[in-house]
Amino acid sequence: MRAMYLNDDATTLGLVFGADSYADFLTRTEMLQRTSEHDKKMIDEMLDAKHAMEEALAEIQENKAQVEQDQSALSDQKANLNQKVQEVAKQEMQLADLQKEFEAQKAQKLQEEKEAQAEIDRIYRENESIGDYVGGDFIWPVSGYRTITSYYGWRFGGSDFHTGIDIAGRNSAGQAIFQKPILAANAGKVIYASNSYTPGRGYGRYVIIDHGGGMSTLYGHQNQVYVSVGDYVEQGDVIGEVGTTGWSTGPHLHFEIRENGKHVNPKKYFPGI
Ligand SMILES: [Zn+2]
């Protein structure tokens, strides 16, 4: 170009480069160079920006996948929770049904208990006590069996009044109480004895002995009754055997002591229990 300049061939250069003069050409060349540098810088910046955007996009896609995964897990958990809520609701309904059933059974048991008591009250009304009480101390009605599984008084949280004591279990030799002899706690006259009974109801097979002076004893849930109404028994006579007839959940003797037909705490006559 220097040669061209020296040979005053600037016109050719001007034609080639579209410059009116070499000065113009120089300016143009410099501009071209600067423009190129500027463009390169811009391209670099754009490439950087593009790269950054691609990275950001990749990150967003990764996050999106994670969010979708979380959503799926959450949706599973929600379904699971809904199922549990339904199960609980179902259980609550079943519980309510059971509660109703229990209340109905309780009411029925109380009614049956009342009926059993009414029967006993009738027996006492129809039987005047024989003379004075001359029997002295009572003896324990099942020799060798001292376990009391239910005491006299309110039980089952105050829903049921237990009118006697329940003697159950095994003796010291390990023998179960079932079918063991029941002894008359004192001498007296049998005013009630029955071998017929309604299963699941009241005292089952039971005996009442009048000891005179308004004192009497009752022996419930017997497997067998050996005495009859009108019999006179001595203290210690075998009147039957231990069973689980009537409203009873296992072999035991339900033993009551009554004064003028009213049940009293047997502890009054057996202070050691
Ligand atoms: Zn009882």
TrEMBL record:
Domain M23ase beta-sheet core residue range list = 161-266
Q: A Pfam family in this protein? A: Peptidase_M23
Keyword set, alphabetical order: Coiled coil, Signal
InterPro entries for this protein:
Cell_wall_metabolism_enzyme (IPR050570), Dup_hybrid_motif (IPR011055), M23ase_b-sheet_dom (IPR016047)
| Coiled-coil region list | 43-126
Q: Which one of the record's GO molecular function terms can you name?
A: metalloendopeptidase activity
Q: What is this protein called?
A: Peptidoglycan DD-metalloendopeptidase family protein
Organism of derivation? Ligaoa zhengdingensis
